[in-house]
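not sure who needs this but someone in the group chat was asking about Leader peptidase (Prepilin peptidase)/N-methyltransferase from Streptosporangium sandarakinum so here u go. i didnt clean anything up, its just raw.
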Amino acid sequence: MVLLPAAAALAGVLIGLWSRVLVVRHSLPGGEPPPFTVEAVTGLVLAALTWRAVTPGLDPAWPGGLWDGAARAVAARAAGLLALCWLAGVCVVLAFVDAAVRRLPDRLTLAAYLGTGVLLTVSAAAGGRWGDLPRAGLGGLALAAFYLLLFLVNPAGMGLGDVKLAASLGTALGWLGWGVLVAGAFLGFLAGGVYGVALLATRRAGRRSEIPFGPFMVFGAFAAVLAAPLL
C-alpha cells in the first residue's frame, strides 16, 4: 500500500520539473516560483490521490481498493486515478501561473478538460460505469455555468479562465458524486474567503484588490476529492 503512493510522489516530483518549465513560460513577467515548490506540490498531490485509490475503504465506488476485482475493474480504477492525476498535474501549473500573473491560459485549461474527459471515458468503458459519465458532464456544465454567472455579475471579481477551469473541476467532481461537487465548490470559496479576510486584516490588500481565485478552486476541488469517503 505504501509503495504505489511513494512511486506516485517520485513521479510527481519528476513531472514537476517539467511543470516548473510551463509555470515559468506562462508566468512571464511574473517571475519564477520558489525552488522546488512546484515539484513538491505535484508530488504531494499525486501521492495523496494514489493513496486514496489503493487503500481499501477510502473510495466509495470501489471499497476494496485499486486491486480488488477482475482485470477490467482494475483497469477502470486505474484510468479513473489517471484522470484525477492528470487533472491535478495541470491544475498545479494553472494555480502557480494564476498566482503569479492572474491568468489561466486557454491551452492549459483545454488540456485539463480534454485529458480528464478522455480518461474518465476510458474508465467508464472498462468498468461499465456509463451511468457516471452523464453526471460528470452535467457536473462540469453546472460548475462552469455557476462561474459564468459570477463573471457576468462581476467581471472584475471572476475571469473567463476561472469559468473554463470550473468545467474541468466540475467534470471530475461530478464523476465522484453530486455531494463531492458541492463540497469542492464550497471549499474553494471558503478558502478564498479566509485568505481575503486575512489580507484585509493584515492590510496587505484593500476591498477592491484583485485576488487570483484559481488556486482556491484547485484547493477546494482536490480537498473534496480526498474527503469524498466522508461526504
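also The longest helix spans residues 71-101. if thats useful
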